[in-house]
TrEMBL record:
It comes from the Bacteria. One of its GO terms (molecular function) is 3-keto-5-aminohexanoate cleavage activity. It comes from Mycolicibacterium hodleri. This is 3-keto-5-aminohexanoate cleavage protein. Gene3D superfamilies: Aldolase class I. Pfam families: BKACE.
Length: 241
């Protein structure tokens, strides 16, 4: 299990689809099993993308309710978050209305600040009593977030970098976010080829991080991971050095 200073969140599926990995969790039952195994491997929280029957992300209330209910039953008390990704419902008003209609709630939701309608959706999430994890993909988004009231009211700030980005970009983002004076903890992660280097950099910088099949399908040695638990175990091992 991780030491007290290590914080790893498991991101168990992301926007990936089942054709990308045979063990990608999609159904509520699969999401619940993945959440439990990731937690047992050392993850302190779980982030998931509820999915429709075709494997695509969905923000519809019944889909979110089924996923959250299943994970809650399997892992009571495990901090649980879901996506609000614009790609799942690419219309700002429709996305806001879908989230307003959620009745079975997770503990928190991620919100990418550069996406259309995100400030308004943040108000909806806060009004429901949900924690807001703000996702910052670049310096422009970080600057806009820093000037908003969400700099003081979000529960976590996530630096979300792409596969081609590196620690130089990460450090610039960390510096910009620190200058905002937000009380929220910072989480740093990468994607695919940048995933493991940035996870290690997060550990070196003393910030939170995450791992799971959303961010990579490969273990540090380049082999394809069998599941989310193996990724979490590898992350805990790296961060515990």
């Amino acid at each position: 299990m991780p030491t007290a200073k290590i914080y790893v969140k498991a991101c168990i599926n992301g926007a990936r689809t089942p054709d990308q990995h045979p063990n990608l969790p999609v159904t509520p039952k699969e999401l619940a099993a993945a959440a439990v195994s990731a937690h047992e491997a050392g993850a302190q929280a779980v982030h998931m993308h509820p999915k429709a029957s075709d494997g695509r992300d969905s923000l519809e209330p019944d889909v979110v309710a089924a996923a959250v209910t299943a994970v809650r039953a399997a892992a009571p008390g495990l901090p649980l978050g879901v996506t609000t990704g614009f790609w799942a419902l690419p219309d700002a008003d429709a996305r806001r209305r879908a989230v307003e209609a959620w009745t079975v709630l997770p503990d928190f939701a991620s919100l990418n600040w550069h996406e259309p309608g995100s400030p308004e959706l943040a108000e909806v999430l806060l009004g429901k009593g949900l924690g807001v994890e703000v996702g910052l993909f670049h310096l422009e988004a970080a600057a806009a977030w820093a000037e908003s009231k969400m700099a003081q009211h979000c529960m976590r700030v996530m630096i979300e970098l792409q596969g081609h980005e590196d620690v130089v970009v990460a450090d610039a983002m960390l510096e910009r976010i620190a200058s905002a004076g937000s009380p929220a903890p910072v989480l740093l992660h990468g994607l695919d080829e940048s995933c493991w280097p940035l996870l290690e950099h997060a550990g070196e910088c003393g910030v939170q991080t995450r791992i799971g099949m959303e961010d990579t399908l490969k273990l540090p040695d380049g082999s394809v991971t069998p599941d989310n638990a193996a990724l979490v175990s590898a992350a805990v091992q790296l961060l515990s050095r």
